[in-house]
Amino acid sequence: MHSLSFTHLLLLFTQDNNSFIASYKKILSNNNFDKSDEDLKKVECAVLTLLRRRDAEDQLCCNDESRMIVKYVDVNGFVTVVTCTNCETDQETTCHNVNWTYEKIYDTSLLKKGDHICCHRPYAIWHHGIVTNVEGEKQIVHYSGNSTVVEGTMQDFTTSRCCNCFGKEFNSLYRVNYMDCYNSEYTVLRARSLRGEKRYNLFDRNCEHFSRWCKTGSTSSSQISIAWSSLGKLVLTIGLKAIGLLIVLGLIQYSHESQEEMVTLVGVGGTGAGYRESREYTSHSLHCCNDFCVCDLLTEDIFLTSRYSHT
Q1: How many Å apart are CA 51 and CA 111, to the nearest integer?
Q2: pTM to 2 decimals?
Q3: What are the pLDDT digits (tens) for 117-133?
Q4: Fold held by 100-220
Q5: CA-CA distances (angstroms) from residue 175 to 51, 70, 104?
Q6: Stretch (H or E) spanning 231
Q7: Where in the chain are the domains?
């Protein structure tokens, strides 16, 4: 058996201290997190698999796994950023492509460990959870009715006090299939680590936020996005209609004011002019009448004078 030289031992020691697990343990210890060696291996496997998948040749940065160390973790102790000690490149561990499709599940035996599932509830509400066990009775981690993350049966997940009143269609079960996501072991580990959490908030920490975080590291919610989008469209529609109504009322008011001004002008200008014309006509008529009378009188006087002269 060949013995290892001091240089080789130093190299192995240095690589071990710079390795993913060693750096991860150090950060967890500094932040008072406690994870088993088995859990650490699950995290390492999932994260490095994700980083390889992003490369066209399925390789890690600098093609050296020993150079990948953990740089940051989140509030739950899960890795968020990994860096390469060779090129000092940081890489986030959140899945980039979180597009998804819904697949209706008619047979629960088709469910797999780590699946993100959801069921349709009344009033356009969807309830989400993570499948953690498929052997025997299926187990689901989800936010329960008392706003606490629990691990319960499929029956607990799909039913509630109001759902049965609306028929079976409202409890239709679906699987959420992602373009890019964590492996099943890591998804289950993340889901179970939050059991007992009581941070439920409809707008930024509902059951969909929780499930997507477990599966992809992202904390988005399509329900909230759709709700805000619909609300925005409604407000925009109402706003545009209100503006249109104000414009129409303004035009009507302007039209009425214009008509009133025209009536005033006719009353002041048109009627006065007519009155003046009438007076002028009457005066002219009188002058004509007077002239006629004078002419008649003159004619008659000349006739009489001529008659008496001949006599």
Answers
A1: 26
A2: 0.67
A3: 999 876 667 899 999 99
A4: endopeptidase fold (from Nostoc punctiforme) (3.90.1720)
A5: 25, 32, 6
A6: helix 222-265
A7: 10-92, 100-220
